[in-house]
Design goal:
The complex is a heterodimer of chains A (341) and B (164).
Chain A: H1 3-38, H2 54-63, H3 75-91, E1 103-105, E2 108-110, H4 120-141, H5 145-176, H6 181-187, H7 194-197, H8 199-212, H9 224-227, H10 237-262, H11 278-304, H12 312-340
Helix pairs in contact in A: 1-10, 1-11, 2-10, 3-4, 3-10, 4-5, 5-8, 5-12, 8-10, 8-12, 10-11
Chain B: H1 12-16, H2 18-33, E1 56-60, H3 73-77, E2 83-89, E3 96-104, H4 113-117, E4 123-125, E5 140-141, H5 143-146, E6 147-149, H6 150-163
Classes of the chains: A mainly alpha (341), B alpha+beta (164).
């Protein structure tokens, strides 16, 4: 590990950051567009070409607003909470591999992943559970009953769905025999995606991901009809923007994780039969990865504008009485199949 | 917890939830691909049909004289008291003309009574609908603002002949 290695790692981190931030900005745009289309409207089309600069106008608007901290709030934690949210949302992306082959840069082999951790899945699970602190602390620190209710809901929801999320992953781990994300992707060669091998696990993991990212139909922590704005009621200006950013960054993270675990990551079936050089392979695979993630992001938004929000008791019933047994049944089934086939 | 008054029990397939979810998603997808009816307003403007009751205007004949004889019936019938007419004499065949004719567009309720009562077809409802003002004074239309060439009002006049 010398200066060059560190420099390469830093470049990877910066590139990842920039790409994710730009994607977040355009996600805000696509969210507004998709909601508009579903409701037979046109959506933003004035700022920039086709309205593509709309999110930047939104951000400038948010930054120009007054930053209000309630008098009774805990100032330190009130400021810390959005930082936790955004930090957690971004750090998960460090272990996601975006292409298979290595490329040579300055005489070094560069892997197409920021950190190839051998307990990748555990790292992802650990960080997504950290995300709940951002929401719960923001709810508590605001010293507002609606915020607190939103924060508590998010805590209960995350803990309930974290379980089925982890359990649905076990099927994938059993098939692969490794916790390393690069191994998991390599194992899904050709059409042997985990989506095909683990359809039940895929559905439970997908649903749990929706709950983890607090997206509709599981957006109870910010259920605006009952909780004003939920955990971010008392936030304004840049801190609110950070929560906003964190929600979309979380969407990107979960889409990337779902792609890696179930949709074959960067795998493109029959790509090696074309005899491309490593450089082109990397390019095509990154593109394939981004396309899969983009489809999932569209799916997230499509669901949001189609499915109504769950009631709190329905949420808990689904989490504990349906998702958990399904995930456990999936483990048993996978184990039996692996043992007897 | 909230209780639900169950009027109907779900079938097995509805309880599975996912098929119903897929149905809903299909519906929204169809809506997403449908043609939008939105009109991009400042660029694309709407031309109302002749039956539209927009701002009332005074008809200006081709010879440059208004039809109005300042009888004051419109002012009398106006339920919102928006019209103010002051008559004067003229050497023309019609002998009377409005020296002052003002419609306060903040009071006008677009009922069309003035048009209905007018014996000369001199005041008609035009198809003007962009009636937003930043100054109070701008909202009071005087004769200059109201006089509209008869050619522009032809569709409305024909509509009135056909349906009166």
């Amino acid at each position: 590990m010398d200066v060059l290695d560190i420099a390469i790692a830093l470049i990877k981190i910066v590139v990842m950051f920039v790409v994710v931030l730009l994607t977040v900005a355009e996600l805000v745009y696509t969210e507004r567009k998709i909601s508009a289309w579903i409701q037979n409207r046109v959506g933003p089309n004035r700022v920039g070409w086709l309205g593509l600069l709309q999110p930047y106008a939104d951000v400038v608007k948010l930054l120009l607003k007054e930053d209000i901290v309630p008098a009774a709030a805990n100032r330190f934690i009130h400021t810390l909470a959005p930082v936790i949210s955004i930090g957690v949302a971004f750090s998960t992306l460090a272990v996601i591999p975006i292409a298979g082959p290595t490329i040579t840069l300055f005489g070094r082999t560069v892997h197409m992943v920021i950190a190839d951790v051998n307990v990748g899945i555990l790292y992802v699970l650990a960080l997504t559970s950290m995300g709940v602190y951002g929401l719960t602390l923001s709810g508590w620190a605001s010293n507002n009953k609606y915020s607190l209710l939103g924060g508590l809901r998010s805590a209960a929801q995350m803990i309930s769905y974290e379980l089925s999320m982890g359990l649905s992953l076990i099927g994938v781990i059993m098939i692969t025999g490794s916790l390393q994300l690069t191994d998991i992707v390599h194992h899904q060669h050709g059409w042997m995606w985990n989506l095909v091998l683990q359809p039940v696990g895929f559905i439970t993991f997908l649903v749990a991901s929706f709950a983890e990212t607090n997206r509709a139909p599981f957006d109870l922590p910010e259920a605006e009809p009952e909780l004003v704005g939920g955990y971010h009621t008392e936030y304004s200006s840049f801190k609110f923007a950070l929560f906003f950013l964190a929600e979309y960054a979380n969407m990107i993270t979960s889409s990337a994780v779902i792609t890696t675990l179930y949709l074959g990551g960067w795998q493109v079936p029959y790509l090696e039969t074309f005899g491309l050089s490593d450089g082109w392979m990397v390019l095509v695979q990154i593109l394939a990865f981004m396309l899969k993630v983009a489809f999932l992001l569209f799916f997230f938004q499509w669901v949001r504008w189609s499915v109504p929000r769950f009631r709190y008791d329905q949420l808990m019933n689904l989490g504990w009485k349906v998702m958990l047994p399904l995930a456990i049944a999936n483990i048993v089934l996978t184990g039996a199949l692996l043992l007897f086939l | 917890m909230a209780t639900v008054d169950k009027k109907y029990t779900l079938t097995f397939w509805e309880k599975i939830y996912i098929p119903e979810l897929v149905k809903g998603m299909k519906l929204t997808l169809e809506q997403m691909l449908r043609k939008k009816d939105t009109r991009q307003y400042p660029e694309e403007r709407w031309t109302p049909p002749p039956s539209f009751r927009g701002a009332p205007v005074l008809v200006l004949e081709e010879n440059g004289v208004e039809r109005c004889v300042a009888c004051g019936l419109c002012s009398r019938v106006c339920p919102a008291l928006a019209i103010d007419v002051q008559a004067a004499e003229t050497a023309d065949e019609k002998e009377r003309y409005p020296a002052r004719f003002e419609i306060n567009m903040l009071r006008c309720i677009f009922c069309g009574f003035c048009e209905e009562v007018c014996p000369e077809e001199a005041i008609v409802m035009s198809n003007r609908y962009e009636l937003a003002f930043t100054e109070y004074a701008d909202a009071i239309f005087d004769k200059d603002a109201l006089l509209t060439p008869v050619a522009e009002l032809r569709p409305r006049l024909e509509y009135l002949r056909a349906h009166r």
